[in-house]
Design goal:
The chain has 268 residues and is α/β, with parallel strands linked by helices. The protein contains 10 helices and 6 strands. The chain starts with a strand and ends with a helix.
């Protein structure tokens, strides 16, 4: 019978015997959550996480190129001593290694953890309401932290969702992923005023406007790419705003959205 398994794994520890077994799993049957948290050695040492970057790079490359496993890579915003530039470098590096999901999450002060020992030195301020997310620290003031929180939300809606697998990458095209997506997220929030209850068609329309008006990409080519993304799931219709640019092009839906693992399938 069909199955879907999820494991949390250590990024720099994949024995060859395990690697050989991972190759055997069929598409979208196995999800591996890899808690990277940070790729900054100094920050990693501060939060007591071993960081063998060469091993991490080797293993993520192996999982991406030689298995059909779905990867879910975690990065944390607001770690003690992590600058915005350092976090941006983390995101740039991971996107260069894999096309899989990269979950961007704000640091949380969980009960029983030792993160509180950094509170005074790094000016860590957390919400007193669950899930106790960080509000600011000495390197990232409150307003900036809110912008990063919005960026994480829009990243999830666009990049992680798999709904814009091809078209979202036009935002950077071999350039700085973080800086270009940051500008897009600020523009999105200016247009929407919210990060929730945004329809897929509305999000697609705003991406189309941004790519064709801000970046000045060709409208027909951009429309075709977004259409390919949206119609990769059976049953989806081409949004009205794209129809004037889509004429003789026919798109075949190759994936079914019926399974409860549609998000993973979108990244195949």
């Amino acid at each position: 019978p069909e199955y879907f398994l999820h494991f949390e794994v250590i990024p720099d520890h994949f024995p060859n015997s395990v690697k050989e077994k991972l190759k055997l799993f069929s598409s979208a049957s196995l999800q591996l959550e890899i808690g990277i948290q940070t790729l900054n050695p100094e920050v990693a040492d501060r939060i007591q996480r071993k960081l063998n970057f060469e091993k991490i790079k080797e293993n993520i490359t192996f999982l991406t190129e030689q298995t059909k496993n779905h990867l879910h890579l975690d990065l944390i915003i607001g770690l003690p001593g992590e600058t915005i530039e350092s976090f941006g470098n983390n995101l740039n590096t991971l996107t260069s290694l894999s096309n899989s999901e990269i979950q961007l999450g704000l640091l949380k002060k969980l009960s029983g953890t030792s993160i509180d020992r950094h509170d005074i030195e790094f000016g860590m301020v957390y919400s007193d309401e669950p899930p106790y997310e960080i509000l600011q620290n000495e390197l990232i003031p409150f307003d900036q932290m809110q912008k990063l929180k919005r960026l994480a939300r829009f990243w999830d809606l666009t990049y992680n969702s798999g709904n814009f697998k091809r078209s979202i990458k036009l935002l950077w095209k071999d350039m700085d992923v973080f800086q270009n997506f940051y500008k897009f997220s600020e523009w999105l929030y200016e247009k929407l005023g919210t990060t929730y209850q945004i329809s897929l068609n509305r999000l697609a329309e705003l991406l189309f406007i941004y790519l064709t008006e801000v970046y000045e990409f060709d409208k027909t080519e951009t429309a075709e790419l977004i259409t390919k993304d949206l119609t990769s799931i059976k049953g989806r219709r081409i949004p009205p705003f794209l129809r004037e640019y889509i004429t003789d092009v026919q798109f075949e839906s190759t994936k079914s959205g019926a399974k409860n693992i549609k998000r993973q399938i979108m990244h195949l």
